[in-house]
Amino acid sequence: MNPPPQESAQPQEHAQPLWLNDNLVYVHVGGEQSGGAYSLSETLGARGNMPPLHVHRRNEETFYVLEGEVRLFLGDREVVLTAGRAALAPRGVPHTYRVESERARWLVINSPAGYEEFLRATAEPAPRAELPPAGRRSDPAALAGAAAEQGIDILGPPGTLPTQL
């Protein structure tokens, strides 16, 4: 059983900027603050950014776009999100996204919490609040291992769509 949410939790002044692959990410609310109910993160990505195809086994994932345009590939559907639009990637549905605009910024809500632990395990502290330099190397095996610990299965490399399974 999860502990109850902190009753008098103070808002974070500034979340730690993190570099995850080609994105700038912030964890604004983690399970430790929500009693395990959910996590809230913010992501900034550049045109063409696309994570590996994956599926969440433990949690629902909601995307809410603040700026730009993000195309979600959810099973056999495509959903284009622009500022003010949201979509749910249900537990068990293979999905990925691609940034379609020059830049995009979006919120990610995962319920229950746990996704933020994946972010913290795989991202590195960013020295400044900007996108990481292009061409950074990542370790797909380490990413897959950390994902598996949080009930996320990596199904294919970046660029793989759910319809290709």
UniProtKB/TrEMBL annotation:
Please name the Pfam families in this protein's record. Answer: Cupin_2 (PF07883)
Q: Domain named Cupin type-2: which ranges?
A: 48-109
InterPro entries from the xrefs?
Cupin_2 (IPR013096), QDO-like (IPR053146), RmlC-like_jellyroll (IPR014710), RmlC_Cupin_sf (IPR011051)
Q: Locate the compositionally biased regions of type Low complexity.
A: 126-148
According to the record, the residues making up region (Disordered) are 126-165
Gene3D superfamilies, sorted: Jelly Rolls
Q: Which domain of life is it from?
A: Bacteria
Question: What protein is this chain from?
Answer: Cupin domain-containing protein
Q: Which organism is it from?
A: Streptomyces bathyalis
